[in-house]
């Protein structure tokens, strides 16, 4: 089939639509229970069925759909910039997790609102689209729901896949279903990728080459995380002149390695304080036990305890304060990388002026880390001993550490131009206001 010929619905897509209708009651029960357990009101829970809890604003509406916290927050700077370029435009963000909704609400750009996305069933999607009538739909990273895409496009809404990222496993899976892959990708008017590798993969999966535009990682151009000056001042005052390092976004199986590294560091730097911020704050009690089992003194932020002059580990098990910790200390180990977890966004600490240490399990950011380590903006470690050596080097060699921070800052500064190009490309797809 010629790549110029519009792709048609496939048997697999039809089977998916049928299966989604069958499992919809079970899926609804599961997602509704999760939202209710979080304490959300019923009208917000019912957004997953396509029932809007807010009115549609007048004017042209640009809809962004993202999977979770990182993807949702990554578009806020882009929305702000688009809003400045198109002052009459309104914005809608959909994301599936209560945590993302909570954080978005705190940082919402002007003329923006949040809803939970409809389940990917015909009834829920049609109800959602009938109410919101988006003029442009932007899907972030790899959150592709087939019926949501097909039905939005059929309704006349131009679609963009933004910050596209696909794992090798996902690419191989789609290549086994080439006609369906092409049909889904054919719904997009524009596909903006994080890197050249993803651009090549999308084309190999059947996306039209003329619709693919390689870009950079959207998260690299996001605004810095918020900083609470009061909290920063209090914690800094309590720690005093002691040296500090930060271990952020750590997961199960990583804290033990970090704590082992800290014990090694304390032999040469007995007054060193570790600020440990687990990725999931609800694991605070578990992590506190790990700290005590390691024989280290601990102050736990969620209990309102401040670090003292002898506190060896300050356990920052709270949500939304990471920007404050990066402002406190620019020497950051970023978790999700000492195990094969995929890594986390290195741009957030770098935007705060930090240099980054990572493990080797950062496959979601492999190309980014390759560039950062080559530039000297990041360092890679494999073990507790490696981690301790790298932290010690940056503590003991301030010129080397400053050079790493400078390299990180230069990388971030190069992303602003790319963001402006993305804004222009999206606004070019925004149609004239519908009657």
Taken as a percent bin, the fraction of beta residues is 5-15%
Largest β-sheet summary: 7 strands, parallel
Ranges where pLDDT stays below 50 over 5 or more residues in a row are none
- Strands in their spatial order, largest beta sheet: 3-2-1-4-5-6-7
Tell me, rounded to a whole number, the average pLDDT: 92
Total of domains: 2
How many helix segments? 19
The CATH topology of the largest domain, please? Rossmann fold
Quote the distance from N terminus to C terminus: 37 Å
**CATH architecture field of the largest domain:** 3-Layer(aba) Sandwich
CATH superfamily of the largest domain: 3-Deoxy-D-manno-octulosonic-acid transferase, N-terminal domain
Number of strands: 14
Shape: globular
CATH top level label of the largest domain: Alpha Beta
Pfam families: Glycos_transf_1, Glycos_transf_N
Active site: 71
Keywords: Cell inner membrane, Cell membrane, Lipopolysaccharide biosynthesis, Membrane, Transferase
InterPro entries: Glyco_trans_1, Glycos_transf_N, Glycos_transf_N_sf, Kdotransferase
